[in-house]
C-alpha cells in the first residue's frame, strides 16, 4: 500500500483518519503544521499528501501546496477543508489551489478511503 502524509492542525481528525488509513494497509505520517509538513515531504517522500487548507493561518495549506509545486514536488495532494460546508464556498483544483482533489470535511471514513484509492490508482 501507499505512504501517505497527513498535514492538519486538528489532532482528532489526524488520529481518526490515520487509524482508518492504516487499517486499510497504508503507512501514515502526520504533521500538524506546514513547517513540519514541508520537512516530512522532503525527507519521507510520500506517495500522497492529505493537506488541510486552514491551520494556524487561513491559507497555510494553499501556501504549502504552492511551495511544494515551486520546488518541483509533484506528489498528488488531496486538499481538505470544512470551509466549503460552513460557508458554501466551492473549491476546485487549479493554479490557485494546486491540488489533485478536494475533500470537504467532515468526511466519512469510507469516502476518504475511496478518494485516496482513486488518486493512488492514477
Give structural notes.
The protein is α/β, with parallel strands linked by helices and 122 residues long. It has a single domain (3-121), classed as Response regulator (Rossmann fold), CATH 3.40.50.2300. Helices cover 43% and strands 20% of the residues. It contains five helices and five strands, in the order βαβαβαβαβα. It has helices at residues 11-23, 34-44, 60-70, 83-87, 109-121, and strands at residues 3-7, 27-31, 48-52, 77-81, 101-104. The longest helix is centred in the N-terminal third of the chain and has 13 residues, at 11-23. It starts with a strand and ends with a helix. The model has no long low-confidence stretch (mean pLDDT 92).
Features:
122 residues; alpha/beta; Rossmann fold; five-stranded parallel beta sheet; 5 helices; globular
What does the main sheet amount to?
A: 5 strands, parallel
CATH topology: Rossmann fold
Overall CATH architecture: 3-Layer(aba) Sandwich
**Highest-level CATH class:** Alpha Beta
> What's the number of helices?
5
Oligomer: single chain
| Sheet with the most strands: spatial strand order | 2-1-3-4-5
Question: What's the shape?
Answer: globular
Class derived from helix and strand content: alpha/beta
- Rounded to an integer, what's the Rg over CA atoms? 13 Å
Report the uncertain regions.
none
Order of helical and strand elements = EHEHEHEHEH
Helix content, binned percent: 40-55%
**What is the CA–CA distance across the termini?**
14 Å
- Overall structural domain count: 1
Mean pLDDT: 92
Amino acid at each position: 500500500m501507499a505512504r501517505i502524509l497527513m498535514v492538519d492542525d486538528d489532532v482528532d481528525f489526524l488520529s481518526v483518519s490515520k487509524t482508518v488509513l492504516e487499517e486499510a494497509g497504508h503507512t501514515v505520517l502526520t504533521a500538524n503544521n506546514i513547517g513540519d509538513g514541508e520537512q516530512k515531504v522532503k525527507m519521507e517522500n510520500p506517495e500522497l499528501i492529505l493537506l488541510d487548507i486552514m491551520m494556524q493561518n487561513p491559507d497555510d495549506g494553499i501556501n504549502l501546496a504552492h511551495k511544494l509545486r515551486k520546488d518541483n514536488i509533484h506528489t498528488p495532494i488531496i486538499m481538505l477543508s470544512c470551509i466549503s460546508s460552513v460557508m458554501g464556498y466551492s473549491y476546485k483544483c487549479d493554479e490557485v489551489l494546486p491540488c489533485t482533489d478536494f475533500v470537504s470535511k467532515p468526511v466519512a471514513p469510507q469516502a476518504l478511503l475511496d478518494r485516496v484509492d482513486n488518486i493512488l490508482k492514477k
